[in-house]
Amino acid sequence: MTKELICICCPQGCRLTVSDESGELTVTGYTCKRGIEYGKTEATAPTRVITTTVAVTGSSWCRLPVKTAGGVPKSKIFDCMDAINQVTVQAPVHTGDVVLSNILETGVDVVAARTIE
Amino acid sequence: MFQYDLAIIGGGPAGLAAAVSAWNEGVRSIVIIERDDVTGGILNQCIHNGFGLHYFKEELTGPEYAGRFEQMVAETSIDVKKQTMVLNITPEKMIYAVNPTDGYFAISAKAIVLSMGCRERTRGAISIPGDRPSGVFTAGTAQRYVNIEGYMVGKRVVILGSGDIGLIMARRMTLEGAKVLAVVEIMPYSNGLNRNLVQCLDDYDIPLYLSHTVTDIRGKRRVEQVVVSKVDENRAPIPGTEMTFDCDTLLLSVGLIPENELTKSAGIPIDRRSNGAIVFDDMQTELEGVFACGNVLHVHDLVDFVTAESMKAGKSAAQYILYPYQHTDQPVELQNGPGVTYTVPQKLDLTAGEAKTDLFFRVNHVIHGGTITVQAEDGTVLFSRKKAHMLPAEMEKITLDKSWFVGHHTATVSIQEGANEK
Ligand SMILES: Cc1cc2nc3c(=O)[nH]c(=O)nc-3n(C[C@H](O)[C@H](O)[C@H](O)COP(=O)(O)OP(=O)(O)OC[C@H]3O[C@@H](n4cnc5c(N)ncnc54)[C@H](O)[C@@H]3O)c2cc1C
Ligand code: SF4
User: Fold this and answer.
1) pTM of the entire structure?
2) Which residues lie closer than 8 Å to A50 by C-beta, 6 or more apart?
3) What ipTM goes with this model?
4) Residues B356, B409, B276: CA angle, nearest 5 degrees
5) How far is Cα B320 from Cα B318, in angstroms, rounded to an integer?
6) Which segments of chain B have a pLDDT < 50?
7) pLDDT number for residue B35
8) A52, A114, A115, A116: which to substitute to probe chain B, counting the most B Cβ within 10 Å?
9) What is the pLDDT of residue B131?
10) Cα Rg for chain A, rounded, in angstroms?
11) Which residue, B28, B90, B160, B355, has fewest beta-carbon neighbours within 10 Å?
């Protein structure tokens, strides 16, 4: 297997080639080492960070921006969105507070991305 | 009337960074004036991540990035006047503003930083034919509705413009349950970053139509159909290539314009090519004591560059307040040669400020293999560097040593194409 990918870890967008022809997974075309890790994960079990909002009460804001604290499997993005959309948070809430832990057993928490007093 | 050493107009990332940097240089009487209920500017609605890789060496969402600077400001005694709209600035550096508590009032300042950001081009600014039903939004307006008000703007969506904001909104609308039928781009290339093409379009199988544009909008009350046509190399629609999309929403992501009404009211000269004030390498405009930074000066794609530029503006404003200086009346004028749309700064003062300066510029077409050169009026090459790819959508930055310019009056920044393929 040989795959051509674009690294999405920074605006540079390096063109990576991932191959297992030599028996183990090799990545070429990266500029920094984050590209190696991205290439390997993307070729085997791709993940994405989800950024979205949840309802918040007790404040003049009506939506709280949230993000998954790490990547979740790409195939579970829409299921995660459904789970996140069930959440309502009560203000005050601080950047980094967990609003949903271990979403869909992925081991990843959903955390607040702004402070609302 | 209020009196401050430094008044900063606009509390987005540019204004916040300028304030923090002036504070760190020792200025203690600073006010940030923001018309919104909150500071943070456009970042409040940019809930996606990708901010701060240069500055904080980690990937933050827009609100998190703004939050870091709001925290730095909170640790100082900088005044922040929210819900305060600046209406006018005079050449004498008097600021007239209005808010619910003070009413209409004046502020006099020793120095001013302009950091009012930019606004979106609208349908009027690009003139699409067809009906005028509801359901046509600029991408940024839709972003605010969805991310701040929590209100979905439509179910079946076509997006015109493939810059980063259009791409980010394609993903955002999809995650919220809408069907994005097409992203349409008049140019033969996308104006967005490759990473956004991958994670916003490819991930969700959203088609991108390059060299296409919207040629008709149909619908009585609400958008019902959008017609998309292929364009020729002169960007003119080709008859017979029409595709019709049944949709209820059209998002326009067709560019940003610096918001310079106040700059003009102060009589500050504007560069017609960058659409922002003409500045020296210390970010000072041609009106002494008035500085500019961020999207009001030129449209940035990366907030990290906004921060770096604004830190410099804040630092220079502090220098000006603490140790007043005047610019030479014979600066080196930077001119735009072939391949270059604009440069910021436009003027270098060899007698004041720092020894080195960053120079930002944009190229005016896609360039594969070119040499960036800076050449003095007598032909002397002062700087030259090869670069594999340059896109109009991506701002370029080079660092210049001002001593190279001694003895020169003008220098031209240009791109020599080809001849250096690897
Ligand atoms: C929709 C969008 C998406 C983006 N996505 C990314 C991204 O993914 N990654 C990235 O690095 N960069 C991104 N950027 C770029 C970056 O966020 C901007 O370049 C940056 O926010 C500009 O900062 P600013 O402070 O100059 O302007 P702004 O953030 O616009 O702030 C200007 C502030 O001035 C205030 N103001 C204006 N006029 C007045 C007045 N008369 N009186 C009082 N206050 C006033 C406004 O209310 C506003 O708060 C994006 C930009 C946009 C528009
Ligand atoms: S490999 Fe490194 S430099 Fe290249 S896009 Fe990925 S993170 Fe950026």
Assistant:
1) 0.93
2) A67, A68, A72, A77, A80, A81, A84, A110, B175
3) 0.93
4) 65
5) 5
6) 420-422
7) 97
8) A114
9) 79
10) 18
11) B355
Task: Please give the backbone phi and psi of residue B244, each rounded to the nearest 5 degrees, phi first.
Answer: -110, 130
pLDDT at B125: 59
Q: What per-residue confidence (pLDDT) applies to B421?
A: 43
B297 lines ligand 1 (CB under 6 A): no
Run means of pLDDT, 10 residues per run, chain A, 117 residues: 89 89 89 92 94 96 96 96 97 96 97 96
Q: In this predicted structure, what is the pLDDT of residue B362?
A: 95
**Hey, is the C-beta of A9 within 8 angstroms of any chain B C-beta?**
yes
3-state SS of chain A is: CEEEEECCCCCCCCEEEEECCCCCCEEECCCCCHHHHHHHHHHHCCEECCEEEEEEECCCCCEEEEEECCCEEHHHHHHHHHHHCCCEEECCECCCCEEECCHHHCCCCEEECCCEC
Fill in the amino acid letter for B420.
N
Hey, which residues does B358 pair with through a beta bridge?
A: B399
Using CA atoms, how far apart are residues A54 and B327, in angstroms rounded to an integer?
A: 51
Neighbour tally for B127: CB within 10 Å: 6
Structure tokens given for A113: 């991305």
Q: Is A45 on the interface with B (CB under 8 A)?
A: no
Residues in chain A: 117
Q: Rounded to whole angstroms, how far apart are CA atoms B330 and B409?
A: 7
Domain range list for chain A: 2-44, 51-112
